[in-house]
Write a structure and sequence with these properties.
With 165 residues, the protein is of the alpha+beta class. The protein has a single domain (3-164), classed as Nuclear Transport Factor 2, Chain: A. It is 44% helix and 36% strand. The protein is globular and about 50 Å long.
């Protein structure tokens, strides 16, 4: 994927985040504060599930955090589309590096905006991993934007992730 489509997608998501912010500022009401608190708690639960699945490299957990129609854009790879696409990308990485061990994973989220059944957030992640027991550890840092989708049960799943490293 060239830089132009990624730039267009990033600009679209930035506009979505700005629009969500502007709309929520205008429509804010006391009743929405309760809904927002519940949404933020559910989003924080998703973040904890992401941390747990990443640290343990649980194959099921690494897929369960995504919406059915999710799209994940990782640098240097074509987009992984839908849960099956994300699962296939995960399986390919684990087959290539069967001894992968995540030593640390620390995401930070900012500017979380919710509107109806969507949320937008900026992230920074850093971590450390080893590709095998004999390999030296590698530190990494990534930034990006995510769109989350609320499910009917009130839980949230990642719907779009665009990151860089």
């Amino acid at each position: 994927m060239g830089r132009t489509p990624v730039f267009v997608m990033a600009a679209f998501l930035a506009g979505l985040g700005i629009g969500l912010f502007a709309r929520s500022a205008v429509l804010a009401a006391p009743q929405q504060a309760d809904t927002r608190a519940a949404d933020l708690a559910a989003i924080e639960k998703l973040h904890r599930e992401d941390i747990e699945a990443t640290l343990t490299q649980d194959p099921k957990g690494l897929v369960d955090i995504w919406a059915e129609d999710a799209v994940r854009f990782n640098p240097g790879n074509p987009p992984a589309v839908g849960k099956p696409g994300i699962q296939a990308e995960n399986e390919k990485a684990h087959a290539q590096y069967p001894g992968l061990k995540v030593l640390s994973y620390m995401p930070k989220y900012t500017d979380i905006r919710t509107q109806d059944d969507l949320a937008c957030e900026w992230f920074e992640r850093e971590g450390e991993y080893k590709l095998s027991a004999e390999a030296a550890s590698v530190k990494w840092h990534a930034r990006g934007v995510e769109v989350l989708k609320r499910r009917q049960d009130g839980s949230w799943k990642f719907a779009v992730m665009i990151g860089n490293q």
